[in-house]
TrEMBL record:
Coiled coil: none
Domain MaoC-like per the UniProt entry, residue ranges: 17-131
InterPro entries: HotDog_dom_sf, MaoC-like_dom, NodN-like
Name assigned to this protein: Acyl dehydratase
Organism (species): Pontibacter lucknowensis
Highest taxon of the lineage: Bacteria
Length: 155
């Protein structure tokens, strides 16, 4: 699916209630997991100790931090929608986020997004987007939830 370009509040409103699309797949590597562990100081062995994770976990490999997968939201969202003509975008809220399944190292994930609502708050667009992080070849997603972005358009 190709990227949607939106340049105004009115264009944003026209997508209300519609699926916006799906990002490209992104592979979660052990190096990315290690870098995330270093950045967040979360060095739990299920993320980093490949030998132990293979033997002692039901995943049979290391797994990505849940918050690592959430941190991919802006990157994957940007593949689905390009918001132009904005002064600023603010990540406002995440609600009802549920982790459904661990993401094993070397899994490929992609984001599916649907525009639930758009509200005009005195010239600022408040958007609620239903997001699902899909894992390639898995019926169960890594997570699903609702994210809210604020867009300050240049008029």
């Amino acid at each position: 699916m190709s990227q949607i370009t939106i340049n105004s509040l009115e264009e944003l409103e026209s997508y209300q209630g519609k699926e916006l699309g799906v990002s490209e797949y992104h592979t979660i590597t052990q190096e990315q997991i290690k870098n995330f562990a270093d950045a967040t100081l979360d060095h739990q062995w299920i993320h980093l100790d490949e030998n132990r994770a293979t033997i002692e976990t039901p995943f049979r490999s290391t797994i990505a931090h849940g918050y690592l997968t959430v941190s991919l939201l802006p990157y994957l969202w940007g593949q689905i929608v390009k918001i132009g003509n904005v002064k600023m975008q603010v990540n406002y809220e995440i609600e009802s986020l549920r982790f459904n399944q661990a993401v094993a190292v070397n899994s490929r994930v992609r984001l599916r997004a649907k525009m639930l609502s758009v509200k005009n708050l005195r010239g600022i667009a408040k958007t609620q987007i239903e997001v699902t992080l899909e894992i390639e070849n898995s019926r169960k997603p890594a997570y699903n939830g609702i994210v809210t972005f604020l867009y300050h358009f240049n008029d």
